[in-house]
Write a structure and sequence with these properties.
mainly alpha, Lysozyme, globular, antimicrobial, Glyco_hydro_24, bacteriolytic enzyme, hydrolase, glycosidase
């Protein structure tokens, strides 16, 4: 920069990328409101996933980054903690929206139960969640049976994984609150 550089016309600023559409859903609304349910969702799922700022391959080889994010991740991707936090918030809202389409009864569920179901879907994907015994039993009105079925999702690559078994147990505790 020269002494008189301020006299030169400035180049127009590069256009900013369009902001992503704000996520929707009950959990997102609670996050904005700063409620305990939102905090529970963020702390619970974030705590189960852990934080990795550089992409890595998970136990079955899927490129993963931040707090369990797999969508669009390529090996070598790097993110800041703030980006990871934003990704988790957006992801939780998107997964909540997805599961409410196949299990609409969760919309009126206690906060803990909703967080448990969102956590499971965040880990296994909305498609797998919607086809699961967890979802089928919930839709049939068997709420306890739905919570019991979380145990069916303690495997990765066909093998039982202790970390997943612990996570499913913790999700079941949340799911059963108020039953």
């Amino acid at each position: 920069m020269g002494l008189f550089s301020f006299l030169r016309p400035k180049a127009p600023a590069a256009p900013r990328p369009a902001a992503a559409a704000a996520p929707k859903g009950r959990l997102r609304n609670r996050m904005i409101a700063g409620t305990a349910a939102a905090a529970l969702g963020v702390v619970f799922v974030g705590g189960k996933e852990g934080v990795r700022l550089v992409a890595y391959r998970d136990i079955v080889g899927v490129p993963t980054v931040c707090m369990g994010e797999t969508r669009g991740v390529k090996m070598g991707d790097r993110h800041t903690r703030a980006e990871c936090d934003a990704m988790l918030l957006k992801g939780l809202a998107e997964f909540e929206e997805g599961i409410l389409k196949c299990v609409p009864g969760l919309a009126g569920a206690p906060d803990e139960r909703l967080v448990a179901h969102v956590s499971l879907a965040y880990n296994i994907g909305v498609g797998a969640y919607c086809k699961s015994t967890v979802a089928r039993r919930y839709n049939a009105g068997d709420l306890k049976g739905s919570c019991d079925a979380f145990d069916m999702w303690d495997k990765a690559g066909g093998r039982r994984v202790q970390g997943l078994a612990i996570r499913r147990d913790d999700e079941q505790v949340l799911c059963r609150k108020g039953l």
